[in-house]
Structure formats: structure tokens, C-alpha cells
Amino acid sequence: MKLEFYNIIPELRPFIKVISSVENPGDSTSPCTFRVLPDTCVEIFFAYRGETIAKIKTKTQFDSAKSFVTSRMSTYMDVQVPQNSGSIAVCFYPGAAFRFFDLPMKELTDNNILLFDLWGDKIYELEDNISLYGNQMERVSAIQKSLLNFMQREPANKSAYEYCFSKINLFKGRMPIKMLSKMTNISQRQLSRQFNNFLGLSPKEYSRIKRFLFTLDNMKKYPFYSLTQIAYESGYFDQAHFIHDCKEFTGITPRELVCSKVVIY
């Protein structure tokens, strides 16, 4: 598989984490298959070549030759990039994609949806245009201009969400939700409603995944630590809870994860 990364224009940098081209050339011997872990990101794949640009397996199978949106919220997915396929992938920062979709983000959680169902006929015009361009820079430029057109105004009622989101990130998922509710003076139910609307997960769900991702970072930083040490360092009550989360979020044990091919970017 051929993967290349591109610069993001200043207007989109607060929202977009990565823009890349994803190709599996026709001379490749086989499809490229890999496992992607949940990272609470929403990603768009803009199609420009191939009868199928991706096959995604979670609890169901999703095959698409058209542009689509996928959310890696709370479960892993197995992705296969077929031969002779090409797409531009736009990966949003966690909690940033809601500015580009006119619906509660909970409706995208752990789901794959054709972009036509969200943006209508305009996406077909964009697909036709980028398929005709001779290089990736032109494709990326056209996509970023389109994203600016789809970007919506900043909502006025998300201050509590932003505050709690930043605190969860700062404390790596280890701050109690009751404390966040008390600090913002709104109920846990109201806070959960805001998180589901803007992020697609409840504060508790997001905290749990954030803690797990922090644990993966610690596994890389401290390869000689035992699993028990890693679990305590990351805020788990014990090793068993960490192993349980690892199996749920990756489908494999921590030991198997160390030796596997997974993707987080």
C-alpha cells in the first residue's frame, strides 16, 4: 500500500489531524489488510479510483466504491484496501468533525456511511472532478476547498462540553465524571447529551478509551515494564481491568497486541 501525507490549509488545521492518499497499485500482489484501533476519530475517504476503495469489517461488512465516512469510536475495525484502488483520507481530531455534519455525532458512532447520504449530490461532482486530476496535490486542494464550503458555524452552547473534553484529555481519562458535572454545574445527563451530540460518545465512554490509548503510549515508552506496572501507571485499578479493555478495544490480548500490526495515527 502506498501512503502519502499532505499539508493542511490554516483554516482547517484546528479540525483536521491528517490528510493522506491511500493507494494499492494495480501491480500489487494482494490486497492490503490491517487492523485499526478505536481512537475516537471520524474519517472521510474520498474516492477517485477503483471499483472498491475499502472493505471494512467490524460487526458487519462494509464495501464501498464511493466516498464514505467512518468513525473509529469504541471498537476496532479490520480494513482491506483492494488492488487498483485510490482515495484521499481526511482524519479529524477527536471531537472536531461535528462542524462538518448536520446531525448528532452519535449517529456516526462505530458506523460507516456513504457521504452521499450526508452531503447529497455535491459529493458526486467532487468525485468526478478529483478522478480527472493528474496528481494528488490537485485532489487534496479541491477536497479542502469543499470542506470549507461544508463547514458550519461554531455552535454557541458547547462551553461545558469543551471544558470537560479538555479536562478528560489533560488527565488521560482518569477524572471522575461526577467531578466534571460538579465543576460545570450541569447534570451528568446533560453533559452526556452534549458529548453524544458533539463527539459521539458519553463522557464515561470517552474517558475509558482515552485511558486505554494512554496505556498504549505507556507500553511503547516503557517496554520493560510488566503489564501490572503499565496498568497502575495508566490509572487502572488492576491488570485484569486493562486486559479486559484491551480485548474489547483491539480483539486481542496485550501480549498479542505488542506483536501485531495495528494502526493508530
Oligomer: single chain
Number of helices: 10
CATH architecture of the largest domain: Sandwich
CATH class of the largest domain equals Mainly Beta
Total domain units: 2
**Which fold does the CATH topology of the largest domain refer to?**
Jelly Rolls
Strand order of the largest sheet: 1-2-9-4-7-10
Give the integer mean of the pLDDT values: 90
Separation of the first and last Cα atoms? 16 Å
How many strand elements?
11
**Low-confidence runs:** none
Question: How would you characterize the overall build of this protein?
Answer:
The chain has 265 residues and is α+β, with helices and mostly antiparallel strands. It has two domains: 2-150, Jelly Rolls (Sandwich), CATH 2.60.120.10; 159-263, Homeodomain-like (Arc Repressor Mutant, subunit A, Orthogonal Bundle), CATH 1.10.10.60. Helix content is 39%, strand content 22%. The chain has helices at residues 116-119, 122-132, 136-150, 159-170, 177-184, 188-198, 203-221, 227-233, 239-250, 254-258; strands spanning 2-5, 16-24, 32-36, 41-49, 54-57, 61-64, 68-72, 77-81, 85-92, 112-114, 262-263. Strands 1-2-9-4-7-10 form a six-stranded antiparallel beta sheet. The longest helix is centred in the last third of the chain and has 19 residues, at 203-221. It starts with a strand and ends with a strand. The mean pLDDT is 90.
What order do the helices and strands come in, and which of them pair?
Layout: E1 2-5, E2 16-24, E3 32-36, E4 41-49, E5 54-57, E6 61-64, E7 68-72, E8 77-81, E9 85-92, E10 112-114, H1 116-119, H2 122-132, H3 136-150, H4 159-170, H5 177-184, H6 188-198, H7 203-221, H8 227-233, H9 239-250, H10 254-258, E11 262-263
Parallel strand pairs: 3-11
Antiparallel strand pairs: 1-2, 2-9, 3-8, 4-7, 4-9, 5-6, 5-8, 7-10
Helix pairs in contact: 2-3, 4-7
